[in-house]
Amino acid sequence: MDPLELPKELDANIRVFHGKIERMESDFAHVTLQSPGGEELLGKCRRTILDENGIGEGDRFELTLARKNGTLKYEIKKVTRGVVSAEECQKLWDRFADLND
Question: Are 33 and 63 in contact (CB under 8 A)?
Fold first, then answer.
């Protein structure tokens, strides 16, 4: 059984998706995946896979799928949120202020 319940047309060699956990249930999570081409897929993922990778509700992740000889292999990793320094934040505010002038 595939780790993600995704459409069977994903028979490409490698596909990379950017995903987000929308809601966690007891055994699975509802996920939204976005392909590099911009298509959006909604699916379910077993919660154990996410727990093993430190991914929880609201988290973003990158999913790499590879199908070879009919077998689906995957790699999932959490995308950590960056921290904006006070200096970088001020530069952004200054740029926004310049746009309004």
Answer: yes
List phi, psi (to 5°) of 71.
-105, 130
pTM of the model: 0.63
Distance in angstroms (rounded) separating the CA atoms of residues 94 and 96: 5
At residue 44, what is the residue type? K
Q: What are phi and psi of 90, to 5 degrees?
A: -65, -40
Q: Please state, as a whole number, how many other Cβ atoms lie within 10 Å of the Cβ of residue 45.
A: 25
Neighbours of 55 (CB within 10 A): 24
Over residues 4-45, the pLDDT tens digits come to 555 555 555 678 889 999 999 989 999 999 988 888 989 898
Q: In the 8-state DSSP scheme, what is residue 72?
A: E
Only one residue has tokens 């990379």, namely: 16
User: In whole angstroms, what is the distance from residue 44 CA to residue 25 CA?
Assistant: 10
Neighbours of 2 (CB within 10 A): 15
Structure tokens that stand for 71 in this block: 């077998």
